[in-house]
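Hi support team,

I submitted a single chain yesterday and got back a structure, but I'm not sure I'm reading the token output correctly. Could someone confirm the output below corresponds to the sequence I sent? I've pasted both exactly as they appear in my results page.

Thanks,
R.
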Amino acid sequence: MDIAGRCRILVTIFAALTAGPAVAAGADAEGPLGAEERQQIESGLRDASARLATLKREAADYSKGEPDRIADAELFAKGIAWALKYDASFSTADRALLKSAVDRFRSRVNALEAGESPWAGRKGKVVRGFVSAVDGSVQPYAVVVPTRYDRIKPARLDVVLHGSSKPVGMSELHFIARFDEGDGPASGAPERDYIELHPLGRVENGYRWAGETDVFEAIEAVCRNYNVDRDRIVLRGMSMGASGTWHLGLKHPDRFVALGPYCGYVDTHEFSKTPLSNFVEVGPLPPDQEKMLHMLDSVDYAANAGVVPAVACIGDKDVFFQAHEIMGRAMAKEGLAMVNLISPGTGHVIDPVTHKEQMRRIGEFATKRLDHAPGRIRFVTWTLKYSRCHWVQVLGMEEHYARAELEARVEMEGAVVVVEPKNVARFAILSPVAATVKTVRIGDEVVSVPGRPGERDRSAFVVGKRAGRWAFLGDLDSLKLDGKQPGVQGPIDDAFTTPFLCVRGTGTAWDPAVQTWAEASLKRFSHEWSRYFRGALPIKDDTAVTAEDARRYNLILFGDPGSNSWIARVLPRLPVRWTREECAIGDAKVPAAGHALMLIQPNPLADGRYVVFNSGHTFHEKELASLNYLLFPRLGDWAVVKTPDDPSRPEAESVIRSGFFDEAWAAPVK
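Hi R., thanks for writing in. Yes, this is the structure output for that exact sequence:
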């Protein structure tokens, strides 16, 4: 994001700060802030924020790392803004945190003006921030830097995912308070040989969606600012953090040297039956929703524990004990033995003795480092969203949300043997193996790999079905893939895990009721994104969107072809119909009056980007404010909807038909 865009974020923060209702001065210290208290906090930030905006405009090296330093300061202002926007009552401790955050913000701005950032070299606990590519928001994270850290020697990195925490206005400030010990020299830095990274992950989502992206963006932020050995990155966590460890670790098995889940759930249906009063049981779901659980439930990826080792722990009295039993049975079906250290007499807490043994075993794996060219790989996925494992990548499936399996081995120099792939239409052999491969044997078929013209080594090539037989399709860097592919595979909710921009229609709508509904849907999404995904929703009028925006962002288009010029522009190149008379996707056809389309498709104007019609996340505040395992998609790739009688109430919309586009992104026909 450019400097002007980052400055606009500060304006957004202060709009949030001043949006709260006025409260009489002298309010109870255990209740709402008094008007004078609020005014003191706001005025304390204005000067520092104006100075920070000046630094952004003047920083000549802004594109060379300065955004991280700016975010290191701005995270305090962001935390205060969300606290004042969403919390109506504050405890004495919360009031102290608010005032401390103002002082810490000023302190870091003062240091930046002096050309300094002492926290960047601090040992011990340090609070830092990054600017998310998803929505341009500032997201905090914490690092714990050991006394032995030396910038000359690459260090192991342990990514530690936190447990469940209900999202409230103070969430950022509560997280910051766990780690912020000031910016001066530390007196209690740990004596160990690894850095710890603690991502916030947008508070409470099971590290799904933008929360998943945040974990990897936080890793990149640490790698920019510290000397990290990327082949010794460990992923671990407790409770929701353990669930995130299973989820991210088994779906990205080539990113981590070891996993350390400590009592975390691995599925939706069985976990939802946990006998706790606040739990909501998830019974049988509509078929499309059941399919998409395979994208999220980490138990379905148990086979990938053969690639990345996992050392799990749980107490034998833990109410969630069944979760690790489920994973153990799933691994056994894959021919794997699960390592599960059981702490006797322990509930849902970390037992220090068991945790010490877990860390010892993880340390043994971390010492060995990642092997990016293992002689044999067996990789399982259910979606092209999770498609890569070291030197193999699934590039096309026969059917999404059905199990796909790719098993390959290097038999000798120049030869790769692939067990007949399951539910795989095409795949790639990647570096470092690809450069020397001359033949790929798949079952009884042998595919010859021609020499690469020119002087460059081959980094990746693609094998796929052609006329029913496996064939060499070309080098990945010069091959234009069609259909669903990694990063552009849906469903609708996937559009909000990479950079996106909401586009508001400003023209004359074909149907005023549809336009009212679309605007109300955008307003609902803006509220849900801000409150639960902790950022300002990026929005532009359709008349302000540029060709560069289309190249950089997934375009989320609200309105109809009359009101939104970008819907009208892309519609002729999509496999749907939306005229003044009719809305149609495949054989799902309804009159245009009082109806609209919701969908996700590859943007025909920009490679690698999505276009979405009239939808934010397909789960809403009821789920976001409840339990993180409920954050699964309610719609697939498309829906035909009837607008409600009161179009200003999008929660009353009716889904007439919904489903998936096929693997070629074509409309389905029954």
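A quick pointer for reading it: DSSP finds 14 helices and 28 strands in the chain. Let us know if anything else looks off.

Best,
Support desk
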